[in-house]
Amino acid sequence: MITLRQLEALYWIVELGTFERAADKLNTTQSAISKRIHELEASTGLAVFDRSQRGARLTEQGEQILTLGQSMLDLQEKILMLREGGVPPARRIRIGVTELSALTWLPRLVTRLRQDYPTIQIDPDVDLTRNLYERLLENDLDLIVIPEVFAFPDVTAVRIGEVRNSWMSRPDRAPAAKTLNLAALAEYPILVQGRRSGSGMYINQWLKTQGISFPRILSCDSLTAQLAFAVAGLGIGYFPQDCFLPLVKEGKLALVASDPELPPVPYAAMFRSEKPTVLIPVVADMAREVCDFSRQLQS
User: What is the pTM of this model?
Assistant: First the structure.
């Protein structure tokens, strides 16, 4: 008899590339995963994997079984939602966010998820944009929220908001001029976010279109460390204006007006388009509803 557990094992072997990773994903042993595949082949009378090839490569019949199995897994989840009154069945969701989201609205999202779906285990992870995107493609994460700097055909992106950045520096190191053009900014040490930062990639690309390069830069991947560098007077940096306006009011930082102003950075919730679940798009929409980069540690 063909079972959903067998089809689930098949799906995750193909998605993650090995029997071992599929076992970790399904919280079981590699031998148990192998047994499910042998049972699937015995039930269908078909060879699912081409054992003459290295790695988990499907046969032509295996590809057809996988396609049908994905549809069955999706139907299973929808039926379970009907039984639970529209609430997704108990499961784990792995959400990856950047430092700014963790500092601002992520607590609101977690609170909302616990209220609406109390059976779901939430595993948040904070990392750099490029790392999060690579982990999404490798199926290490179910959903990520990052600056919208990548596009991939198999990834769905839901725009959730944008961040307005401003130049800031320590008050006693701020330029005397009320407004600086970008060329004038190049005369000062500039704090920038690193190459694996989404905001850094977005702003750096925009600066290139303006024909600007800064001869003296201090690159840092950590937003909080970059803030500390600015407060210490090590240079002028770009930061989310609304979120860190309290530091300006406290006199720890000063706004540095520029012409032109920095462009807003768009943020999106992203997930693999072919994942067999109805929960992930729901969480993406929820992230759009609660997204607010203006205040720290919202609950």
Answer: 0.76
